[in-house]
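REQUEST ID: PR-0412
SUBMITTED BY: lab tech R.K.
PRIORITY: routine
TASK: structure prediction, single protein chain
INPUT:
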Amino acid sequence: MDLGINGKRALVLGASRGLGATIARTLAAEGVTVIAAARNQDALSAWIGELPAEQRSRVVAAKLDLADIASIDALADRLIAEGGVDILIGNSGGPPPGEARDAKRQDWLMHFEAMAANLFHVAQRLLPGMTERGWGRIVTIVSSGVEQPIPRLALSNGVRAAVVGWSKTLASEVAAQGVTVNVVLPGRIHTERVDQLDDAAATRAGATKDAITKASIATIPTGRYGKPQEFADVVAFLASERASYVTGAKIRVDGGLIRGI
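STATUS: complete
OUTPUT:
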């Protein structure tokens, strides 16, 4: 299927590894010019350098720290001066595990800023160009925890739920201008983040990581962790011309993990 986005321009946040990097590669393969943004420039350069020459020519590495508003505005200023972007992939790192009763006020403020408020700010800066052109896609990566809270991920469950509310509200405001706004809920997609969570769970339980992974997989109807590419393919569709009538949605990519309807 031709996704109809050849020649479009995308900003992918958190693109140094994991889901962000895979999404950036997938969009580049579809002919999109990709600004891959992250703090870790070495990691960005590593995977960009492995791309086929044609795709590599369409990917630009950009330094961005989502916890630093000056860094965000500097990149936004540059992109707007260059004509803006058509596609924004909002993706932020996750906070450390912990229970709600232990999270301090400062923890909530710090992680809300980096994982929610600053994502909103990026979108607000880049949105006018999309509405003026009458075409835009904003896709934000959240978590299965927004529908089925994940034990010991209180900060993530709470902050990412706020992102869902923002996305749904914005979707109704800009739909008539040709801009769609959606969120995607990854379940247990096999990335470094999932490995870190399994390691932490193993330490707490005094068990092996393999035992923790097997127990986790047993809760997933498909019987396995998802592949980053499977997730990125869904995001690429939502960022495409073909998804022009999908907006304000929460899309699960979880192998059936979320049991609620």
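NOTES: The CA atoms of residues 129 and 159 lie 27 Å apart.
REVIEWED BY: pending
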